[in-house]
Amino acid sequence: MAIRRILKHDDLTLLKNSRPVERFDDRLAQLLDDLAQTMHGAEGCGLAAVQVGVLRRAAVIDCGDGSGVTEIVNPEIIESSGSQEEQEGCLSFPGEYGITRRPAVVKLRAQNRRGQWCFYKAEGLRARAFCHEIDHMNGVLFQKHVIRKE
Ligand code: NI
Known about the structure:
alpha+beta
């Protein structure tokens, strides 16, 4: 495992689309391990591969709710409902926060590091984290969802 450098605001890579993961190999496992270590090292609750310069649809989430690290590869939101407005930030934008509007509940499917499809239902912070990381894979940043600052 290794801590990778997190790309910051002015890096145009953050605006690019990530491609699907096709190989569920040791390299993917290494990437996911590194993402988790980098996320924990930076005290964040989510980190997408694009944020360390890898344009693949993979991310890790750990909201500190006891679920541990959730790895999502090629995720797709199946259903979302309700809305919530909470403060949100991003490891690529240290010190920048805003109140965003996100779905209250999301259901998604994603592959794990072995390529198996898993289903998730999340609410609250975890739902927001899933949406935030999936946005990253499409080059979308949280500022797009900010409705007000504090
Ligand atoms: Ni982010």
